[in-house]
Specification:
Structural class of chain B: alpha+beta
Number of strands of chain C: 14
Order of helices and strands of chain C: EHEHEEEHHHHHHEEHEEEEEEEHHH
Chains: A alpha+beta, B alpha+beta, C alpha+beta
Number of helices of chain B: 17
Radius of gyration of chain C: 19 Å
Number of domains of chain B: 3
CATH superfamily of the largest domain in chain B: Aldehyde oxidase/xanthine dehydrogenase, a/b hammerhead
Strand content of chain B: 15-25%
Strand order of the largest sheet of chain B: 3-7-1-14-11-12-13
Shape of chain B: globular
Largest sheet of chain B: 7 strands, mixed
CATH class of the largest domain in chain B: Alpha Beta
Distance between the termini of chain B: 78 Å
Largest sheet of chain C: 5 strands, antiparallel
Oligomer: heterotrimer
Largest interface: A-B, 58 and 64 residues
Helix content of chain B: 25-40%
CATH topology of the largest domain in chain B: Aldehyde Oxidoreductase, domain 3
Number of helices of chain C: 12
Helix content of chain C: 25-40%
Distance between the termini of chain C: 57 Å
């Protein structure tokens, strides 16, 4: 058992102490307000937009739907610690997949997770995989382009 | 030092697509949006909102809230030191309701406390006694004579006729129908957020806020706070999308007032539910149109009536209505028109600006009418439109002559020439109607194709003094641009630097903070910033360039009027002698500020006549859809577009605006609607207010029509709104076509968003048409 | 507000015995939405988070006895793929329609059942499959049919000291599928869902209807009629009989009109989906040939 207000979290490889979290606080709010990790964004607080996507024990989830105090034994990876997303980040910028950018970190976490499982995705696989990440600015065309380009580059590098 | 060298090129200038200067930070999650600002010691502010659609406030007791430990302030209308109301056109909206609440969600009080939890608890402890009043919910009733007025300004926000030519002209062919457009939300992802820092002496305030127009916010905030404008300093907090929804004040006055009252920094941010209540929406509309044409399909007269529900407060309703009625004819010639438009006040959610601004509603109606007319004349939809296409020099129903480049025929011909997409059936289940739901197989699908076209005014209209300012500083061989243009995601910051590079031949361009320490840039709306702030940046860079020429001429003895910038060189056009600009400007410091204005416009007269608009852009869309007619489910296969952009300053940015705008048009066509019941939103969440996912958006084929507009400072027209306008009717036209192909029914969809049952009923008979 | 993180089912049961008012937290995809909307929890609420109870994430397949036992914490992501897709296809199909990748990674079958939403995609499939639940408390265990467990919208017969430990799902010989209607192509709450199971061994039909009543409904009259009218040898049915069966399914639905859809459309959708699924099933079975 732990007191919901004070507990330890392991985020991006570092175990940190959280003090005075609000009862019922989500992982999203603790990451942002206690740890200053503002890369995960809140836009719906109900798992519908994907802006708050993080990895918990390498599984892609919405951090707004994780009770922070229940994640004490888990390894949390946020955009700030997702080193394998560097080329995805660069491709998003290069391909014009970033406009207002609010959805971008969550999309990059989701796209990085997807690309780790799929080396040669077609656009419709990308549509299925990223359907949980809403973007209101781009109409998604450049996002698909960015994901395809990362896959292509990675395949090229692997051969 | 001078030497003749080969021609040099400027990198990342106009016409190229450099990456966004904020792109890497945004992708890394390091970019600070207004909701990412957590200053030490900041209190958290929460708004108390009305649970009633229409009620008299009998009393407000804040004592229990103030008694809660950790609460610093509770403010109500009594605490507003300056003007009690605000508003973009009419100042009719109270900072806090004092006597009457007029919609569910209207602010009544605000609390600042040590944290969000305490603030919310305190908010819940405020006791407000209301006496419910009869709500006015029906726009049709609101404009009837004798309707009880729900606001001192009356129920009619604007009533505008457009009467042109001979209104009695009848056509050989007549089509008429009524169309319904639902209330759409901007649904920007970055929720409303701000943080305010009071001056130590309480005489002023700094506010970091996500907005579309810093200076207008400042004027309204200062008036309400009873402060001089210069005592209110606004800085643009990172903006997570806007689309019109940040043109009005939301939390700006509240957060500044709380900060000044507490003498401490205060931050506020809305959650999604509050966001639906806290900003204005696209006007729901009822539009009746009757088109008269000759038997060979030439328009001779249009009769129309527009009824827009403005909700409880005026916002920009009157301008939205003017846009609607003045775009009745669409991008077509028509010599006669009889149009009546009314926007009324009701006890529904306030409505105002959203991408397309009144033209979305008008276009949905006129394009469905054009399809009905084509059918009745026995012409293809494209042929009918070709026969009526507007050209430069044509006269609008307002009497205004279209001086803008008007490539309507080019839009039509470009779309007509495009190949059709192939069948996608059977390749991936997400490509079928019903998508992930596994509802549909290829034999349940019928394909449809539809077209729609639009004309959209650019910039502000009706005599508004519309201007933008920009400052350019040259120092140590670098350029620093400063402007107050709200970067909301559209990419103005990218093209501003591109313009400076091309004009000055200097690659190193820095962007100063976007704040009120420079003249106003006007609003990031009305597809105006490329033209207006782009024009201002261009103009100020030209002034700096003149100073550079003078400096070089003085040093080298050449004629400054013979100098030009080519690539990164300064060229003496009389001798063809080239000098790298970086050498010319070494040690030179220049600092200039310029205000750019577009030409004057006038207010419409009583008959709706006058040169009320500045300029126009044109666009066409072709939608290809697969429809499961039996279930009323739609999968959009492809959207093709031909858009009049003038000149693409940054082709990648233009593509981004086009694809993003189409997604919002698709949303309105198929799924997006705020549903109110007794003034209460039934779907104030992303679970139930659905916006398109990546699985709903098809590939976009975009053809840019680049005919530089001589009126535009850089030849470039605004590109933000047109994609949203005719994409919606194109999709509906395609659905209508699929219905014909499936069942032979010629009943048509006449409301957006279309609902599955509307399609089923149109296809198999029922009440849809 | 204490948060308990037990490692074993036994610990869960003793915690429940000691804290009968505790809130059970599985994937969080429903519970956290509620907490976020209320802007947090009351200080006195205790939570028992099942995240670390690894035994609840396990499953066993008994092909001889034709049953699958799914631990309550099995996620939708797990259910989308092998070995489930071959054995309980309609559950796998339903899993694929749930929310997004993020939601499917977190959401669990036990959590979905406990939430008891009439729109639950997976629950609709499980109702058609005649799934049974195992519940445990410190004082014992019980087995109950899923349809008996759910007593109303968001209401179940779970006692305060009980936890769902597993879901027992029969492996049916024949054909099965799930389809749902949403007005968006992905990530949407069902406005009507239908699961159909054609049991070729017992020559029976199961039809479950989601989002068209206070709970997920079995269309029993349609099941009986269709089972009788299907020519099980040739895997076919007359068009009229199929229409009648689909109409009976729509009759079983008692939908409401709300902001998501209308009662009329929901009934229509049930009829169309029932017809389509039975048709698809018989066609697939006919192509497969006698097994």
């Amino acid at each position: 058992m732990n007191d919901d207000r004070d507990f330890m979290l392991t985020v991006n490889g570092t175990t940190v102490e959280i003090r005075g979290a609000a009862p019922g606080a989500s992982l999203l709010s603790v990451l942002r307000e206690h740890l200053g990790l503002t890369g995960a964004k809140g836009a719906c607080e109900e798992g519908e937009c994907g802006s708050c996507s993080v990895l918990v024990d390498d599984s892609l989830v919405c951090s707004c739907l994780v009770l922070a105090a229940s994640a004490v034994h888990a390894h949390v990876t946020t955009i700030e610690g997702l080193t394998q997303s560097r080329d995805v980040q660069a491709a998003f910028v290069e391909c014009g997949a970033v406009q207002c950018g609010f959805c971008t970190p969550g999309l990059i976490v989701a796209a990085t997770d997807f690309l780790a499982q799929t080396s040669d995705p077609d656009p419709d696989d990308i549509r299925e995989a990223l359907a949980g990440n809403l973007c209101r600015c781009t109409g998604y065309g450049r996002i698909i382009e960015a994901v395809v380009s990362v896959a292509r580059e990675r395949r090229g590098a692997a051969t | 030092m001078s030497q003749t060298i080969t021609r040099s090129e400027i990198r990342h200038g106009i016409g190229s697509s450099p990456t966004r200067p904020d792109g890497a930070a945004k992708a890394a999650g390091e970019y600070a949006f207004s909701s990412d600002l957590f200053p030490d010691e900041a209190l958290f502010g929460v708004t108390l909102r009305s649970p009633h659609q229409h009620a008299r406030i009998i009393s407000i007791d804040t004592s229990k809230a103030l008694a809660i430990a950790g609460v610093f302030a509770v403010v109500t209308a009594d605490d507003v030191p300056g003007k009690a109301t605000y508003g973009l056109i009419a100042s009719d909206q109270p900072v806090f309701a004092s006597d009457v609440v007029r919609y569910i969600g209207e602010p009544v009080a605000a609390v600042a406390a040590i944290d969000e939890e305490t603030s919310r608890r305190a908010c819940a402890a405020i006791v407000v006694v209301y006496e419910p009043l009869e709500p006015l919910v029906d726009a049709e009733l609101a404009c009837q004579e004798g309707a009880a007025s729900i606001h001192p300004d009356g129920n009619i926000i604007r009533h505008q006729h457009v009467l042109h030519g001979d209104p009695t002209v009848k056509g050989d062919v007549v089509v008429e129908h009524e169309y319904v457009i639902g209330m759409q939300d901007q649904a920007f992802l970055g929720l409303e957020a701000a943080v305010a820092f009071p001056d130590e002496d309480g005489g002023g305030v700094d506010c970091h806020v996500a907005t579309q127009w810093l200076h207008e916010d400042r004027a309204q905030v200062a008036a309400c706070l009873g402060l001089a404008e210069e005592s209110v300093r606004l800085t643009l907090g990172g903006v997570g999308g806007a689309f019109g929804g940040r043109e009005d004040i939301s939390l700006q006055v509240h957060v500044c007032l709380l900060a000044l009252t507490c003498g401490k920094p205060v931050r506020m941010h809305y959650d999604r539910v509050e966001s639906f209540l806290g900003h204005v929406h696209r006007h729901p509309a009822k539009i009746w149109m009757r088109h008269h044409a000759t038997s060979d399909g030439r328009l001779v007269n249009i009769e129309a009536r527009f009824l827009f529900d403005g909700g409880a407060y005026a916002s920009t309703s009157s301008a939205v209505l003017v846009n609607a009625v003045t775009h009745t004819q669409g991008p077509y010639q028509c010599p006669n028109a009889v149009v009546e438009g009314i926007v009324v006040r009701t006890n529904n959610l306030p409505c105002g600006a959203m991408r397309g601004f009144g033209v979305v509603q008008a276009c949905f109606a006129h394009e469905q009418q054009m399809d009905r007319l084509a059918e009745k004349c026995g012409l293809s939809p494209l042929e009918l439109r070709r026969r009526n296409a507007m050209h430069t020099g044509d006269t609008l129903v307002t009497g205004q002559v279209v001086e803008s480049v008007a490539p309507v025929t080019e839009c039509i011909d470009n779309l007509a020439a495009l190949p059709m997409p192939g069948s996608t059936v059977g390749t991936h289940s997400y490509l079928l109607p019903g998508g992930a739901g596994n509802t549909t197989r290829s034999d349940n699908v019928h394909r449809g194709v539809g077209w729609a076209f639009a004309i959209k005014n650019l910039m502000y209209s009706e005599g508004f003094d519309d201007f933008s300012s920009a400052r350019c500083r040259l120092e140590d061989g670098r350029i620093t641009l400063k402007f107050a243009t709200a970067e909301v995601g559209q990419g103005f910051i990218t093209i501003a630097a591109q313009i400076a590079r091309t004009v000055l031949g200097i690659e190193a361009v820095d962007l100063d903070t976007i704040d009120t320490n420079v003249g106003s840039a006007g609003s990031t709306s009305a597809s105006r910033q490329t033209w207006m702030s782009g024009g201002a940046v261009d103009a100020v860079c030209r002034v700096v360039r003149e100073r550079i020429f003078e400096h070089h001429a003085a040093a080298s003895g050449c004629n400054p009027l013979a100098l030009a910038v080519e690539g990164t060189d300064l060229v003496d056009t009389t001798t063809s002698e080239r000098t790298p600009i970086e050498e010319v400007v070494r040690g030179l410091t220049i600092d200039e500020e310029v205000v750019y204005r577009h030409r004057a416009t006038v207010h419409l007269d009583e008959r709706g006549q006058g040169n009320c608009h500045t300029a126009f852009a044109f666009v066409g869309h072709r939608a290809v859809v697969d429809v499961d007619v039996e279930l009323g489910l739609v999968r959009v296969v492809e959207i093709a577009t031909a858009q009049d952009v003038g000149r693409a300053l940054n082709p990648l940015s233009v593509t981004g605006q086009i694809e993003g705008g189409i997604a919002q048009g698709l949303g309105l066509a198929l799924m997006e609607e705020i549903i109110q019941e007794d003034g209460r939103i039934k779907n104030p969440s992303f679970t139930d207010y659905l916006i398109p996912t990546i699985a709903d958006m098809p590939p976009v084929v975009a053809h840019l029509i680049e005919i530089p507009d001589p009126q535009a400072p850089l030849g470039a027209k605004g590109v933000g709104e047109p994609p949203t306008i005719s994409s919606t009717p194109a999709i509906i036209a395609a659905i209508n076509d699929a219905i014909v192909n499936a069942t032979g029914s010629t009943q048509k969809i006449h409301r957006v968003p279309v609902r599955p049952l509307d399609i089923v009923e149109a296809a198999y008979g029922g009440t849809a048409d | 507000m204490p948060v308990y993180l037990p490692d074993t089912t036994e610990e869960v049961l003793s915690l429940l015995a000691a804290h009968p008012n505790a809130m059970l937290l599985a994937g969080g995809t429903d519970v956290m939405v509620g907490i976020n909307h209320q802007h947090g929890l009351r200080q006195e609420t205790s939570i028992i988070a099942l995240r670390n109870v690894s035994e609840l994430s396990r499953y066993t397949i008994d092909d001889t006895a034709s049953t699958i036992s799914l631990g309550a914490s099995v996620t939708w992501t797990a259910l989308e793929e092998a070995p489930f897709v071959e054995r309980v296809r309609c559950l796998a199909e339903a899993a694929r329609t749930v929310g997004s990748r993020q939601i499917r990674n977190a959401g669990t079958i036990g959590g979905n059942i406990a939430t008891a939403s009439p729109a639950g995609d997976g629950v609709c499939a499980l109702v058609a499959l005649d799934a049974q639940l195992m519940l445990s408390s410190a004082t014992g265990s019980r087995q109950i049919a899923l349809t008996d467990f759910v007593t109303g919208p968001k209401r179940t017969s779970r006692a305060d000291n009980e936890v769902i430990t597993s879901v027992e799902v029969p492996i049916v010989k024949g054909w099965q599928s799930y389809a749902k209607i949403g007005v968006r192509n992905a990530m949407v709450i069902s406005i009507a869902g239908v699961a159909v199971v054609l049991n070729t061994e017992h020559r029976s039909v199961s039809i479950a209807l989601g989002s068209v009543g206070p709970v997920i409904i079995r269309a029993t009259e349609a099941e009986t009629a269709l089972a009788q009218q299907i020519d099980w040898e040739r895997c076919s049915i007359s068009a009229d009989d199929l229409d009648d069966g689909a109409r009976l399914a729509a009759t079983a639905a008692s939908p409401i009109t709300d902001h998501r859809s209308t009662a009329a459309y929901r009934k229509h959708a049930v009829q169309v989906l029932t017809k389509r699924l039975v048709q698809r099933g018989l066609r697939d079975l006919a192509e497969r040939g006698p097994s």
